[in-house]
Amino acid sequence: MADQASRSCAFPRAFSERLSWSRLALFGGIAAYALGAPLAMAGLGAEPPADRGTALAPITLAEQPTAELPTAEQPTAAQPSPEQQEATQALDKTEASLAQQLANPVAALISIPFQWNWDDRIGAREDINRLTLNIQPVVPINLSKDWNLISRTILPVIHQSDANSTINQGRFDNGVDFGDTVQSLFLSPSRPGPWGLIWGVGPVALLPTGTNTFTTANQWALGPTGVVLKQSGRWTVGVLANHLWSVQNRGRLEDVNNSFVQPFISYTTPTAWTATLQTETSYDWQNEQLAVPINFVVTKILKLGDQLVSVGAGLRYWAEGPEQGPQGWAGRVVFTLLLPKKS
User: Fold this and answer.
1) What is the model's pTM?
2) How confident is the model at residue 161 (pLDDT cuts 50, 70, 90)?
3) Does pLDDT of 224 surpass 90?
4) What superfamily in CATH does domain 7-53+91-339 come from?
């Protein structure tokens, strides 16, 4: 019994030994901002920036289901009132509009996505699997009637199996670790520009909040980021990119010199289903390593009580990966809290 209790305390003790007070304060501050800011803005009734993008195409009569007229022999079922029909159509239109806004990385929509990624065949023996929860709050800030500032944060929480593998060297403890935080800010016009293009540019920062040798670069990094896209009808096509350079190396690890490119295309249906195909390509210039995971995800806008959410799942395939990195097929599940502007 004593040995069992000792083993149960091994992870908290090892975790606390790795997590310095400075990193705990840094990660805690980022988490408080990332999760508190969207909820505070929504709770206080803060008005997000005006929406942008092409309006959804109206639903034609051909797209609407038709019902047979009752005959004299058939009893007529209770029909919804005009008010109920109008409310249902308004909700469908709202959900479809929100689904298309989610496809836009710089949309004027407060949201808190929780993204679970499962990767496999990691390590020299391909015997490791990894589960990563990315907490990705998006907070739009209205600077003026013409300009918005969009804050996008990624806070990774990582569990990796098989502490006895050669890549872990006994240091992962089969437990949960934080990864480094990526913070991006996009300055973006409040309305689409010429040819209907939507764009945003700004800085991106890597914050060393990781708690394990294998989940942190152990240094600060800065660089530029940008996104450009076009929404036409129910289609969204665009690309997001950034580059990070080390500005302070806090250990003996190699400097950060990484590029990231994410082309994406999505289609949203009138019933608020969205299918998205994208890659999350990265290149490590320091080690000359390329990673190309290809993702296909399907999501749906739902209403849970009074809360609008987006749920989805999909597959991804590692077309190319770093040495001892993930290989083959992987999976993704997404759950997003939506905090749209109150009418």
Assistant:
1) 0.77
2) confident
3) yes
4) monomeric porin ompg (2.40.160.40)
